[in-house]
Design goal:
- The complex is a heterodimer of chains A (461) and B (502).
- Chain A has helices spanning 13-22, 53-64, 88-94, 97-100, 112-129, 141-156, 169-179, 200-208, 232-241, 295-298, 328-331, 344-381, 408-417, 447-460; strands spanning 74-75, 133-134, 160-164, 185-189, 214-220, 245-250, 268-272, 288-292, 305-310, 317-322, 386-387, 398-403, 420-421, 424-425, 436-440.
- Chain A folds into three domains: 13-52, no CATH class; 74-85 and 360-460, Aspartate Aminotransferase, domain 1 (Alpha-Beta Complex), CATH 3.90.1150; 90-353, 3-Layer(aba) Sandwich (Aspartate Aminotransferase, domain 2).
- With 461 residues, chain A is of the alpha/beta class.
- In chain A, helix 6 packs across helix 7.
- In chain A, strand 9 (305-310) and strand 10 form a beta hairpin.
- Chain B has two domains: 111-362, Aspartate Aminotransferase, domain 2 (3-Layer(aba) Sandwich), CATH 3.40.640; 366-471, Aspartate Aminotransferase, domain 1 (Alpha-Beta Complex).
- Chain B is built from 14 helices and 13 strands.
- Chain B has helices at 40-48, 72-84, 106-112, 115-118, 130-147, 159-176, 194-201, 219-223, 248-257, 278-281, 350-385, 415-423, 453-471, 489-492, and strands at residues 151-153, 184-188, 205-209, 230-236, 261-266, 285-288, 308-310, 322-326, 329-333, 391-392, 405-409, 432-433, 442-445.
- The longest helix of chain B is centred in the C-terminal third of the chain and has 36 residues, at 350-385.
- Chain B starts with 39 loop residues before the first helix and ends in a 10-residue tail after the last helix.
- Classes of the chains: A alpha/beta (461), B alpha/beta (502).
Amino acid sequence: MVDAHPFLPNLEDETIERMLKQVKAASVADLFSDIPEGLRLRRRLSIPEGQGEAMVRRELHGRLGRNSTPPDSLCFLGGGVWPHYIPAAVDSILSRQEFYTAYTPYQPEISQGMLQALFEYQSMMCDLLGMQVCNSSMYDWASAAGEAMRMAARVKKRSTVLVSKGIGLGRLEVIKTYAEPMDVKLQPVEFDSKTGELDLASLRSILSGGGGDVAALYLENPNVFGVIEENAESAIEMVHAAGGLAVVGVNPISLSVLRDPGSYGADIVVGEGQPLGVPMNFGGPHMGIFAVKDIGLARSMPGRLIGMTTTKDGTQKAFCMVLQTREQHIRREAATSNICTNQALLALAGAAYMSLLGKNGFKKLGEVNLANSHYAAERLGELKRVKAPLFSGPFFNEFTLGYERRKASEVFAELAKRGVMGGYPMSQHSAQIGEAGAYCVTEVHSSEDIGRLVDAVGEAL
Amino acid sequence: MDGATPRAPGRRYRQAFWDEPLLSEIGRKGRLGFLVPEDPKIKDWARAKGGAPLVPQTLRRGGDTPLPELSELQVLRHFNRLSQMNFSVETGMYPLGSCTMKYNPKVSEAIASSPKMREAHPLQHDSTVQGLLQVFYELSGMLCEIAGMKKFALNTAAGAQGEFAGVLMIRKYLRDKGRGERTEILVPDSAHGTNPASAAMAGFEVVKVPSNESGLVTIESVKAKLTPRTAGMMLTVPNTLGLFEPDVAEISKAVHEAGGLMYYDGANMNALLGKARPGDMGFDVVHLNLHKTFATPHGGGGPGAGPVGATVELEDYLPVPMVEKAGDEYRLDYERPKSIGRLKGFYANSAILLRAYCYIRLLGADGLDNVSSLAVLGANYILSKLDTQGYSIPVGGGIRRKHEAVVSVKGGHGGAGKIAKALLDYGVHSPTVYFPLTVEEALMIEPTETETVESLDDYAEILNSLFEKLKAGELDDEPKNTSVGRIDEVKASHPLTLKVRW
């Protein structure tokens, strides 16, 4: 036994003796005597000795100091994780231990706070997306998209899913992993190499070959090139005509100014909640959005749902988890998904963020993102040997820059050396694109930051 | 509510109640809680464009953004009041079985709130995140040592996603070995619901293995289910009854001999740190729940993290990307051709990994071993304090419990549910109820090593007194001292209650 430890209140010898006596055991080792001899670890774990928090903090401070992050460098990367300012009030709310040290509200009477917060997240998100039912979060956008593909195949009893080639590669990979065990076939829909938008002709030709097995079309809007899908509505009409579902992936911040997916026909909306008050955190934890257009589809959806009700005596509004018969703890192998722990705390961040920004702040945020990104694209376009933006389609806060001479991977590395994270290489996405990098510009970037970006790109070229 | 406050034992408690309106019911035109930064130079630039729209009008949202209008203080009061209506580990004892609701170190929160963590973008060049990659590389090594595995992938977002990854690895491995006809996964009847759900998601048929009268899976019951179609078995050790499975090594051997693989559900690893390792028991694939054993906060229902470990046979199948080290350089490796692929859009729940790493460093080898010693001592202690008049040990009476204990409330008729609700009135959380499914009127108690012996005494005393009240028919209307009384869950399942406006 270690001498003393702040997390272990019963370490003291007398306490242990008293407890051992109560359980009628001769020693602590005695408590493990049911583990067969041959399976007991006969040595110490080969892990460093424990240290007090002051030492651990100092060491980690040094370790993490080797990372280059804002404010010591600039971040112009996007692609599904975006740099946004997080209001101090959001952090304050998230740091309430009453929220973050609780667990899933299995006992609703003593967990009304988290339940109401999640219900409000669901409500605001539904309004923003133009959907009727939103769950209380998935792991991230990619797994939400993967689950949506599975759900579509299940609901439609069909086994082909059409996937736009304008989606993020990480998400495509996750969709593949989720779809493969169901034998769901993924069929790509081309993009227009001039506009960067989904190619309706490609979709038409796939569907004309008999769309009878098409369970769904998945597209992202704005897409991975940053381009807003002007033809989303037409594409969705086509897939509906073939009897399939339309699944749309979104950056929720874009819906500050852009039409909501419900208004152009989406049946399922997925997306990444990270820009709503969640740090980038080197990839997670983030927050997957999953919403459906009606209650019929809700019965087949994965994830936790919170509903509003009253107390039994009818005197007080109250909240609890609902439609749990879809879930693994009740349905086991027949559940709609295996998900249980999700990202509740980050849905709370989303609720706090949306309520702080509010009607006018959220719209303003969208306008500033639009202005800053278009300003940056114009300034970058003044450089020689680039095409900015590479695609002619309209964009929100991300765009793709084409390079005439340099390799995108070299530009990316050169920029990093200059303390500018940006220009994630897009060449791997499709041979059609050539050498190009992706840039994201938001409200966190000032005109001076953008000036530094332009200078760095100029030098890297 | 007057007169309802419970007398001794336990302390008097009344949870806050605010009758807090919905956000959509408060607010006033023109208010906002945050000023969006706007660069004057860019503003001028936009103005000089003469208001030409940056995106076509047809793509724009018509009308207002559908969000409330509140001041910053209004928003803070709203959520702070809600927080007061939420029970948590730092409020009181929370012995929710199988969830390991232990203390979450504050210093881990402080470290994870560094801008060097928060502001790191997952697509940054590897050379600019060497500090983080080093932490993850070391964490992976430490988890290997703890679980007896060859390699750990850290990139799964939760325990259930770790399970999904693990069974996909088994599937792909078997297919590569020309054994793709093996489509059955054995799962004990006492397993967590995620086990059968994960296996089914990965395309397997689930074969239920009954546990015996002692709550254990026996070698005979496993052998009876092995067929040429067996792909493997998922097993939780100690199991959901808190019992170590004594036949585990023989079971592993039998499953292997039959051509299958062994999957370890690490939900209950808090019992075994430094005591025994799944790798030594014959498991091929393992997941660990960092939000349970490794003290990262449960977040009111997530986020967690569920790293997956594998033996040398299966390490190539782990999900990508992996953190690799070459010389002094760390990098993310995506080029692993046998891998099952990706489960997360971006690397991992990195900020959770960092907290788990801090926890391991704060405890060290001896501290971790003590964690399991005291978790097991605590569970056995509370069990020994329960009045056998009211609570029976349903199975395995003579066997030591590990980190948790399951008791059955005598008398039937929903007694476990009534006791669970009544407990809330004493400022403590209930155990997990009605699980495992193999036990009637089950209460599954996992006190964890961070609870004082005084808390354990109190909790046992409250439970004992509540059984008396149950017998007297006095527990039909509890809880009374929580923010709200007993909830009508049937009404909530009405489809029109899932959002504010329809």
